Amino acid sequence: MVNETQHTCSASSSSKSDGGSSSGSESSKDSSRCSTPVLDADRHERLREKMRRRQDSGDKWFSLEFFPPRTANAAVNLISRFDRMGAGGPLFIDVTWHPAGDPGSDKETSSMIIANTAVNYCGLETILHMTCCNQTKDDITGHLQKAKRLGLKNIMALRGDPVGEEWEEEVDGFNYAVDLVKHIRNEFDDYFDICVAGYPKGHPEAESYEADLRHLKEKVFAGADFIITQLFFRPETFLKFVKDCQAIGITCPIIPGIFPIQGYHSLRQLVKLSKLEVPQEIKDVIEPIKDNDAAIRNYGVELAVSMCRELLDSGMVHGLHFYTLNREVATTEVLKRLGIWKEDPRRPLPWAVSAHPKRRVEDVRPIFWASRPKSYIYRTQEWDDFPNGRWGNSSSPAFGELKDYYLFYLKSKSPREELLKMWGEELTGEESVFEVFTCYITGEPNKNGHKVTCMPWNDDPLATETNLLKEQLEKVNRRGILTINSQPNINGKPSTDPIVGWGPSGGYVFQKAYLEFFTSSEIVTALLKVLKKYELRVNYHIVNVKGQNITNAPDLQPNAVTWGIFPGREIIQPTVVDPVSFLSWKDEAFALWIEQWAKLYEEESPSRMIIQYIHDNYYLVNLVDNDFPLENCLWQVVDDTFELLN
Amino acid sequence: MVNETQHTCSASSSSKSDGGSSSGSESSKDSSRCSTPVLDADRHERLREKMRRRQDSGDKWFSLEFFPPRTANAAVNLISRFDRMGAGGPLFIDVTWHPAGDPGSDKETSSMIIANTAVNYCGLETILHMTCCNQTKDDITGHLQKAKRLGLKNIMALRGDPVGEEWEEEVDGFNYAVDLVKHIRNEFDDYFDICVAGYPKGHPEAESYEADLRHLKEKVFAGADFIITQLFFRPETFLKFVKDCQAIGITCPIIPGIFPIQGYHSLRQLVKLSKLEVPQEIKDVIEPIKDNDAAIRNYGVELAVSMCRELLDSGMVHGLHFYTLNREVATTEVLKRLGIWKEDPRRPLPWAVSAHPKRRVEDVRPIFWASRPKSYIYRTQEWDDFPNGRWGNSSSPAFGELKDYYLFYLKSKSPREELLKMWGEELTGEESVFEVFTCYITGEPNKNGHKVTCMPWNDDPLATETNLLKEQLEKVNRRGILTINSQPNINGKPSTDPIVGWGPSGGYVFQKAYLEFFTSSEIVTALLKVLKKYELRVNYHIVNVKGQNITNAPDLQPNAVTWGIFPGREIIQPTVVDPVSFLSWKDEAFALWIEQWAKLYEEESPSRMIIQYIHDNYYLVNLVDNDFPLENCLWQVVDDTFELLN
Q: B60-163+173-262+300-335 maps to which CATH number?
């Protein structure tokens, strides 16, 4: 190979030596981005490497612990919470494991499936807890194999609570967490990053604090990569623990577990389970206000913030682990006040990346699923290779069927009654459908006074970027151009632009204007005549539910519609309009009319028949204006079409 | 797979139906480009498909026949002629085969190697002639295998001239061209496109014209794809021949062989060999002017143009095949007057593509070899896969050693004496080297009155694009920044721009400013200090002959410096600055000082020692300004460096 030469001055070392001299409050953050830009490092490193890099760069970080939900509905909510709390930039989340709850099963609510969803669909680095006592080797190995298959890369190895009152050691069984650590390293070599639990006050069942420290050292020496501690109430408890660990030779990262007190009862329950004692000074504050939830939470936030500050100021703490109890408010508040909640407008790519290792290189997707990224991930989950750099030619792998429109991570957050209020209890004609689309765009309430905050093709309100096109979108939707996806043209905005920016800083992003909509065959006929005038400039694909397809795409090649140019890198083109994928997307796009909208109404009802008519007769159209440096001509195309019709 | 849907209206049919309505003189050309843009079609189609597409689109084409040269020097000249005549856009060239001249050998002058060079190094679609009589099956198969291995895809199957006066049929041997056609199809299936010869007046040895037509039909039915005819003197001869062929069921393309008369003696010799008779009306013109070469050539051009016009006007002719006799002037003149010489400023990529089938998808190269594309092709000839879309990561395949700097297709067109006049009979110091570089840039004569039209790193005068930077380049070369490669920044010029454009029309091309030069360690020290101010904006690689390497490239990733955005396609980024390839390039770049320059002088001579000193002590530097939308900052970087030095 060619690369035998020494690199006397590597990128990271040069950047680092410069770090101190650069100005601005976020210099350390920026310099770490410069040498190892988000785009790659975050996707290519394993958790322990990310942790080390953050420690080296001085960037403080946090992580979030959740437990698996009890019901499918709660699971849907938890996934939304993952998305919202993921926006703050946790280094990882972790999902607990309760042997009684069938945690390794395929149920929507199992620890395994929740962790899978967090990794694959929410793009979060995730640690799956796993306990070992009272389990066979085969069971454990099966769980680990499944975790690996699903793309999970990190395990929190725990003993778990014994069954029954008295715990007895099993010969050749898993008796301690260290047995699980050894087993993982034996069976899976270095595949998993392993975390173990530390007890700042000693494990309640340990002979002594010192004996517990020795057990912890055993776990680390058996192959654990880092330690997360049990909660504690005083910073000095943790700092002493870290020093004691170091004194006996434990050198891996030790992450303090932070428990913001959120209510009187949850605190009592936790204390009971963990066998910890609440310090008197805390009891003194809480007891008098025990019936005032808000007051307790405010106090809990205050307490957590001051403890975290002390920990961070000690210089011994680089990351904080939060026991969220699946709640958002208190933890988010603490993180924001600490200044480590970093809602970074700079996305690494315009779409949310998945954290599955096999998707590490993925950096191109068809634009069609822009508002349904989880559906895209689901339908491509069987792929072995993901597009990198180019989408490639039309012989790309097939998309999986989307049989279950109620897949829990695709399920609408809104219940049926709410959808009916938004989309109409009773439709009177195609125009009432036009009105629903128009209200979704404008954000104005419909004639019954309800805002339309989601659509079958988009479970969220209009994206900020789409807002740039609001006026024109409103105009065309009123006339029966029922838009479901669009983007403005962008001619070289900085990659740090708060609305359209993505990727590492110092770059420039570009877009071709895109418009995708359903419309009647009458409008399509006129549109096709108009499009002749725009040959070369506008690429189009027009398809109906039967698959009759009209396009001017040369050789059915993909058209890149979003791309970015960055310092020291190859071009990145994360979204394309791919003619072949469009035919898979159209099945989904048409089915959503029926599955999400028509089925809200009784069979044979006029409302249902209206939606069915649109489904059967409308066309799905996408248009790309290739002349991105000029003013977007797609509105002119639509205007010309209506003019021709009149 | 997903693509089961009918495409009721494909790209090409929609474009074609529009073709008639579009205005402008080149509408047919443009519409064929729209539906099947140069970028792909020309590289992916086989010759017979290209021919069919040109016939369908109505685009007239031409092809050029050459014979292998006698000497290595003549070979170098022929290769230059390929490059020059290739610029006119021949559909293919063909290389004749003379059994006496060892045509299948590895000699620089063999038919095989000349055809190989045309395909691989000049990027020309090429037909290799092959004769079969008096040859064994194994010989023939060996030649064909070698041709295939070298990337040749087309064979002109001929009988060849018998040895001795009387020809006897060999039992089980190759007696007729049809035997060779059958053999190729038997042994190589459909790999080769096969051409056969047609005789508008009948083969001189055939029993009759009709019998010869039947032989031709046999050749076609045995698997030939098209026919090129022997030369003829009257258009009606050819047109009758085509009709007679069609009458007996020959439907493949029949291409007229055109022989522009270029001199009295060459005509006489050709007539003798081909046993054709020159019509009296031509003889009447030529005989009186037989000693006036210019007059005969003018007459020959005139005659050829009028015959070609008649052929093209007949509607039965789509392409013209020229017997060039390895000369340029007459054929080029005819082609230009016919308007089918199309010197298209629109290159499919910024560099000349190779026509080897395995390089079909290649569309990314390091910028370093921009002026030495043949060296790049040579050094990557063993690769099995070529970069498409992305250059990829640093673990790319190794570059072959460039051991022989006098490889005939890399050999300088200028002899030693001329190089000495340009680069100095005697050097007096580093400054006299600076002067050579400066004169090359300015185009002004050196102090001995000689223009410097080539350099060791560039065998041609300055590129038009580089001229845009002339003033600044002159300034820095005078001061010892010895530039060997550069490009200006381009922020979205039309792809049809005559200077910097490339790729299909309707697109936009971009460049990051690039500067590559040799310079002293003193300047490098100052430069490195200056570059700290430009972190993120400027990427640099600085290396000396020993391989000491300084760079700020993030993770040694490639930096795309040329890219294009086109209608209906993915992004194309044909040139990158790749840190790993740069280390292979630097070996070549440094070696050229010695091999091409130092060795012009006696060993131990002061001139040679000056070049040797530069080779041993200078650094090779490349700089990229990542902020392509802003004014190129690299000149400022150089200015700052000199300021720091003063």
A: 3.20.20.220
